[in-house]
Write a structure and sequence with these properties.
Layout lengths: L5 E2 L4 E2 L28 E11 L7 E11 L5 E5 L4 E7 L2 E2 L3 E2 L3 E5 L7 E10 L5 E5 L5 E5 L20 E10 L3 E4 L2 E8 L8 E12 L6 E4 L2 E4 L16 E5 L14 H11 L8 E6 L5 E2 L4 E5 L1 H4 L5 H10 L6 E3 L6 H19 L1 H17 L1 H5 L17 H17 L1 H15 L2 E3 L1 H12 L4 H8 L5 E10 L4 E8 L8 E8 L5 E8 L4 E6 L9 E4 L7 E5 L1
Parallel strand pairs: 3-13, 19-20, 20-22, 23-24, 25-31
Antiparallel strand pairs: 1-2, 3-4, 4-10, 5-9, 6-7, 6-10, 8-9, 11-12, 12-17, 13-16, 14-17, 15-16, 18-19, 21-22, 25-26, 26-29, 27-28, 27-30
The structure holds zinc ion.
Zinc ion (ZN) binds next to helix 3 and helix 4.
């Protein structure tokens, strides 16, 4: 998602509201040193969720049928569900006696024979969060799911953790004036028979046939109008050769369209070409009540409504959320501390869209701007990108996960070259698509594609705080007709190892380049391997903006 206020030529997204909900989770450390699975021995493979939405008020009624697989000795299933009243629980369609706390439903499963069974939970009440129900100043009732990071549990009985992905079917009964949109493919829209004089109601069913994490499982129910992005919305899809794209907005936003969405097709085409076919049944973009600037729900991206109303929405946020469909949604970080695998990728792929459609110098400007943000962020100086000690999940939405994560990909690309970089990303994606991954999965994929050990690179940029602080100088050695460069690294974050491009403007005004390997040392003197005829006019370091270093010339 995007939740920062960013202003530049390509992107502008406005925070939807003050982020006030601080969520904490505790991490249990296993004997092997890594965190234990969130619910060991249990895997939900499918959710079939039926919701009845009211004409007014915030009370909903739900029935969730979970298909559960058990792979360990577990005799109680603990489902996350906050506050709502549970009326009944069935296991394999037989009633069981369950226990309720404010945040869990504890269900006995010790008697179940076999390793697969169904659990049906009937529940009702007013969700405190997760499903945002509002009535606007014109009296319009709206509901939008907004689950990141673990707010699905406010309205969906679930194993509410990104590691447990499942397919989902949504069946929603609501007044017919509202349009219901959700993940996946539209299966059914049927008017319901009601008593004479009653408000007409419609049943809408959507089916997501790819497993997704609960934080991405959403519905929208609001008086939205549909805008088809048409044949231009065709790219390359996993389901068909054509990705159907559309926008759903409130009627007063209709004349803003297609606006920034006129770039939606080229974004899907670019990311499909760089990585793999688009992973979901369709891609809808919605004006919504999300608290974020944009939220990458699988196949149904929800955006803040203010940039629609003000007509200020820019394509950058669309590129970011669209990139998440591959990274974050289809390949999901298994542990929250690896959230850079989602946000760092979305940040960098937004920049790759700039590179493709605005050119190299715009891309360099974008990477320079992002680098400046990294230098200024206190969390970059104090904590690593993979921050296993941070238990406040909202605090992980920071410059480390986004900007420094994105910059790490940028440096990985420079280190191994475009071909090995994108081959590595593709094999990482294809090996973990519709599943989950950790940073080592990415490391191994790029090690295989480049044939180089990269443990030092990932440790250096992701497992320790800070960035390189480099003081450069050079002199021309007339006897050898070469430039001698010296690189001194600051003590604040220690020394880093990186390739450094040196651009020499020779006496004739011609640019000559060489890339030297700078070791992780306090002081390095390197002969730049460029043969000159005379003293150069000038020497520049890192002309392509490829090192996460604050450079100073001595
Ligand atoms: Zn994001």
């Amino acid at each position: 998602m995007r939740n920062a206020i960013r202003r530049n030529r390509f992107t502008l997204s406005i925070i939807a509201g003050v982020v006030s909900c601080l969520t904490t989770t505790s991490t249990v450390i296993g004997q092997g040193g890594g965190p234990l699975p969130y619910r060991p021995g249990i895997d939900v493979t499918d959710y079939a969720i039926t919701l009845d939405l009211p004409e007014r008020g915030t009370s909903i009624a739900g029935r969730a049928v979970l298909t559960v697989r058990r792979w360990g000795a577990v005799d109680t299933l603990a489902l996350d569900l906050v506050a709502l009243k549970v009326d009944s629980v069935l296991v394999d369609e037989k009633p069981v006696t369950f226990a309720r706390t404010d945040s869990l439903v504890r269900i006995p499963i010790g008697h179940v024979v076999g390793d697969s069974f169904s659990v049906t939970v009937r529940y009702a009440g007013e969700p405190k969060d997760g499903l945002i129900i509002r009535t606007d100043s014109s009296g319009r009732w709206t509901a939008f799911g907004d689950n990141w990071p673990n707010r699905a549990r406010n309205w969906i009985p679930s194993i509410d953790h990104p590691s447990d992905k499942a397919t989902v079917t949504w069946t929603v009964r609501a007044p017919s004036v509202r349009r219901v949109v959700a993940n996946g493919e539209l299966m059914e829209e049927t008017p319901l028979a009601g008593p004479p004089g009653s408000i007409p109601r419609t049943l809408t069913r959507w089916r997501e046939s790819r497993p997704i994490s609960p934080y991405l499982m959403v519905i929208a129910a609001a008086p939205l109008v549909y805008y088809d992005l048409g044949r231009d919305g065709c790219g390359v899809g996993e389901f068909s050769s054509c990705v159907r794209q559309s926008v759903y907005v409130f009627p007063e936003s209709r004349d803003f369209l297609p606006g920034p969405f006129s770039h939606a097709a080229e974004m899907v085409r670019l990311f499909s070409e760089l990585i793999a076919p688009f992973p979901y049944e369709k891609l809808a973009h919605l004006e919504s009540s999300t608290r974020y600037g944009g939220m990458e729900n699988a196949g149904a991206i929800f955006y803040a409504d203010a940039p629609f109303r003000r007509r200020t929405m820019q394509p950058g946020v669309i590129a970011h959320e669209t990139a998440h469909q591959w990274f974050g949604d289809a390949v999901t970080e298994r542990e929250w501390s690896h959230v850079w695998l989602s946000e760092g990728f979305a940040t960098y792929f937004e920049a790759l869209w700039v590179e493709r459609f605005a050119g190299d110098s715009a891309f360099r400007d974008e990477m320079r701007r992002i680098r400046e943000e990294i230098f200024k962020a206190p969390e970059v100086a104090s904590r690593p990108v993979i921050d296993t000690l941070q238990t406040d999940l909202m605090a992980l939405l920071n410059t480390n996960s986004y900007q420094k994560g994105g910059w790490t990909l940028h440096m990985l690309r420079s280190l191994v070259g475009d071909s090995a970089f994108f081959r590595g990303l593709r094999s990482y994606y294809l090996a973990n698509r519709h599943s989950t991954a950790l940073t080592d999965d990415l490391r191994r994929a790029v090690e295989a594609s480049s044939g180089r050990p990269l443990g030092w690179f990932f440790d250096q940029w992701l497992r320790r705080p800070g960035f390189a602080e480099v003081t450069t100088s050079w002199r021309y050695e007339a006897s050898q007709r070469r430039v001698i460069a010296t690189v001194a690294q600051g003590g604040r974050f220690g020394a880093y190892r990186f390739p450094l491009t040196v651009s020499i403007t020779d006496a004739a005004g011609k640019e000559r380049r060489a890339t030297i390997d700078v070791p992780a040392a306090a002081n390095t003197t390197i002969v730049v391997p460029v043969q000159l005829d005379a003293a150069p006019r000038g020497v520049a370091f890192d002309p392509d903006v490829r090192v996460l270093a604050a450079f100073q010339a001595r």
